[in-house]
């Protein structure tokens, strides 16, 4: 049975239970292949099997006799782009943001393209990343505001969370966007799709479950998965990841989070706002250690305000599991400590997906994390094999992956373009959000700049005052000699929207005077960028509203 929507081993278990419950036997589900193999006993209605899978939240697409499946190990969706021979201009392994951007660009250029996907079409962002997490974060924000708003005269209350209904609504959105933004485009642009596990046979061909695919060039765009630290007992105790945490059917009473980066902060705040007691744990002594200290300080205030515990400088000793939950044994400041929680969430970064590709057969070199090593043109050490997106261990944002996919397509077809990742905005979707672009103060000094900075608390931003939420800060980093804006760092509501103006300022070498001399709409959070620029020369608290 071909099944769409499976994205992890938990999905395999859900599908297996659904099929067994409907009467199937010998069920084996694989999210990587996007299928389940099963035996249908006499008297079992095939339609009931499909209905059971659909009721479990997945999309059954086709049921094929095992004999037919055995003679055609991979499923091909012909779109008219395949040439008469057995080769393609470009073979793409993966189907996420980088893969689709590459395929669209290549088809626009008239190239023949095949895309190989072992699991669900769409990759991380739409299926298990950006889309599902951000819609749930918005739900958590509304739940929090219902019980904690700052306005007199308003009577609101936050009731119990129906997590299963919330998750189901999230799944509906994911399915809709996957269909409209990914699957429908395959027909629109006309490339072939092969479902199955791809592995290089040599530098010029791939094996996909027994099918040989030849191409003039290849793009590896297989993305990454949650990395799991080697902590004794963790695997046996069981844990959540950024993937499985988005599929919870109930709110855990308590959650211990291993890590405190952007994923840990987003999901930790979400679970806290939905009702869980949350403890964040990190090895580093400082929160958000790669950011300017003002950013970490602002987020410490947010965590404390919302009742999220933070343990820093920890050493993980072991994790134990039992009927009552999990126990995380730590060493903090030389003393042993135990954190007890119903669930443990692992949020310690991501691991590139390259193990199954047999890159050694193609002679492609990988790094210490398994990432494909590429040059500025996204070429591996084998020039006609390129890689883009998270599998290269670069900035892990879908807009970076999409940008790289387009560059890779051009280079695969003969161009020699170089990627430019000097100005990449980053957003953490906490509330208030964190947004940053360009150099930090320390980074600017290390780069040889004579640095000047401005730090503007949100108490000086009119939008924050009318919102009655002044948690946060705007910080600008500039070159003292040239006045050029080098970086911007923000903690504020809608920081992700405000950072785009700063991104343009950094990219096009604008000066502080350029920012102060440009009108900013009053009572927007983006005005904070201009106010922070004005702070270089005066006390903005002594300006009237909208003063230039």
Quick structural summary:
Helix content is 33%, strand content 25%. It is α/β, with parallel strands linked by helices. It folds into four domains: 2-71, Alpha-Beta Plaits; 76-124 and 168-225 and 352-412, 3-Layer(bba) Sandwich (FAD/NAD(P)-binding domain); 234-348, FAD/NAD(P)-binding domain (3-Layer(bba) Sandwich), CATH 3.50.50.60; 426-542, Enolase-like, domain 1.
Describe this structure in words.
- With 548 residues, this protein is an alpha/beta fold.
- The chain folds into 4 domains: 2-71, Alpha-Beta Plaits (2-Layer Sandwich), CATH 3.30.70; 76-124 and 168-225 and 352-412, 3-Layer(bba) Sandwich (FAD/NAD(P)-binding domain); 234-348, FAD/NAD(P)-binding domain (3-Layer(bba) Sandwich); 426-542, Enolase-like, domain 1 (2-Layer Sandwich), CATH 3.30.390.30.
- It contains 17 helices and 26 strands.
- It is globular.
Descriptive labels:
alpha/beta, Alpha-Beta Plaits, FAD/NAD(P)-binding domain, 4 domains, 8-stranded mixed beta sheet, 17 helices
How many runs of DSSP E, i.e. beta strands?
Answer: 26
Cα end-to-end separation: 65 Å
Rg for CA atoms: 25 Å
Report the major sheet: 8 strands, mixed
CATH H-level superfamily title of the largest domain:
FAD/NAD(P)-binding domain
What's the helix count?
A: 17
DSSP strand content:
25-35%
CATH-defined architecture of the largest domain: 3-Layer(bba) Sandwich
Number of separate structural domains: 4
CATH topology of the largest domain: FAD/NAD(P)-binding domain
Instruction: State the share of residues found in helices, binned by percent.
Output: 25-40%
User: Which class of secondary structure composition applies to the elements?
Assistant: alpha/beta
Low-confidence stretches: 67-74
CATH domain class name of the largest domain: Alpha Beta
Assembly type = single chain
